Amino acid sequence: METKKRKPATLTGDWAALPDDALLAIFGGLGHADIFLGAELTCASWRRVAVREPTLWRRIDLRSSDGSRARSNPSPRAWRAMARAAVGRSAGKCESYAGSVDADFLAYLAASPPLLRSLHVTSFFHLPIKESAADMEIPYLPMLEHLMLSHEARRFYLYGPMGSMLRMKLERMVKDMYIYASLEERTTIYRRLNPRGRLSMHAQT
Amino acid sequence: MEVDKGKGEAEETRKVAEADRDTVTLKSSDGKLFEVSKEAAARLSTVLAGMIAGGSIDDNGTDLKQIGSEALENVVDYCNKHANSIPSAALISSSISFNTAPFKEPEEWERKFVDRLSHDALFDLVEAANFLGMERLLDVTCHKISEMMKGKSPDQIREVFNIKNDYTKEELEEIRQELAWAFYDD
């Protein structure tokens, strides 16, 4: 009984073999671009966990992260593919999305199970002006409570040549809408009464 | 019957005495003993809470054969520090944000606690936290690991954690291509 036991073989410090729950907690602390471009390409066991677990993709954050100088900047096409793959991996459980959008992607979101409550648009995938956001078909997202435009998307909305058309479309879609500008004047938030009549707002600093 | 009754009373007394102790003793895989606040252990670890409630705590040191002494020392240290800290707003707040996970930021002392650990110690502590069902400690250690991975390329991550690349070059390229080309043809 009292014989000293050596460490069991499972505790060999093999980071590739971390428990699934630990890997999920680690990946949960990363933006999803960091998962696509870093973590899941590290080794096969990490990718298996990242791809397989829908809860990891419930709140998608594909805002471009800074501090990624170590990696080459993904092309707009790669961002589009990541956005779709992320929604796919959520297996219909996606509740919020933050990142770039275009008409195709919004249509794809609208065709997914309607759980999306929060949409944060940072840019419009750098589309050429003729396909710009103003002509964009904006689908109905029944559960949407929060819509935020920031970065390029906000600049486009406020100052872009086609911004007024987008404004009209959004005003039709969003019931109780107004502009919120943060202290740094970086973000714009619209809000509306959600179907349950609860008014809520999230400010981003 | 008389004997049985006496025995029962003695048992009862022993149990009361045990319940009165406000620490429990844990024994690592290499036989070292550690005292930990019973309240904190029960609050922070679902496994220890179950053992305490189920009476499977041994006064002479409850065997935790899966955990080495260095990791257990850190676990106990964390529990005892936690017992003395007042939960701040950071622990309680959980407002919906646009971030990926509703993770509650580590407290200053928790940050310092994990920052001083070597990679090996960090790894062992993650495994210990996972084994003992310590959600908060798992979150705090994993948060540290996330920070170490942010913005890094797969090569850099492998280097930091000494992970073997078990992808072939072809497989890796295939995954990349799959991602970039799956839905768009230029």
From TrEMBL, chain A:
Q: Where is the F-box domain?
A: 12-60
Pfam families hit by this protein? F-box-like (PF12937)
Record's superkingdom? Eukaryota
PROSITE patterns registered for this protein in UniProt = FBOX
SUPFAM superfamilies, alphabetically?
F-box domain
Q: Any idea what this protein is called?
A: F-box domain-containing protein
Origin species, per record, is Digitaria exilis
Q: What is the lineage of its organism?
A: Eukaryota, Viridiplantae, Streptophyta, Embryophyta, Tracheophyta
UniProtKB/TrEMBL annotation, chain B:
GO biological process entries: jasmonic acid mediated signaling pathway; protein ubiquitination; ubiquitin-dependent protein catabolic process
Q: Where is this region: Disordered?
A: 1-21
**Pathway(s) of this molecule:** Protein modification; protein ubiquitination
Q: Which keywords does this chain's UniProt record carry? A: Ubl conjugation pathway
Please indicate if the UniProt record lists NADP as a keyword: no
Pfam families of this UniProt entry?
Answer: Skp1 (PF01466), Skp1_POZ (PF03931)
The record's annotation in SUPFAM superfamilies points to: POZ domain (SSF54695), Skp1 dimerisation domain-like (SSF81382)
Q: Where is the SKP1 component POZ domain?
A: 23-84
**SKP1 component dimerisation domain mapped to chain residues:** 136-182
Q: Known InterPro entries for this protein?
A: SKP1 (IPR016897), SKP1-like (IPR001232), SKP1-like_dim_sf (IPR036296), SKP1/BTB/POZ_sf (IPR011333), Skp1_comp_dimer (IPR016072), Skp1_comp_POZ (IPR016073)
The entry describes its oligomerization and partners as: Part of a SCF (SKP1-cullin-F-box) protein ligase complex.
Similarity comment: Belongs to the SKP1 family.
Q: Which PANTHER family match?
A: SKP1
Protein purpose: Involved in ubiquitination and subsequent proteasomal degradation of target proteins. Together with CUL1, RBX1 and a F-box protein, it forms a SCF E3 ubiquitin ligase complex. The functional specificity of this complex depends on the type of F-box protein. In the SCF complex, it serves as an adapter that links the F-box protein to CUL1.
Q: Which protein are we looking at?
A: SKP1-like protein
Q: What is this organism's lineage? A: Eukaryota, Viridiplantae, Streptophyta, Embryophyta, Tracheophyta
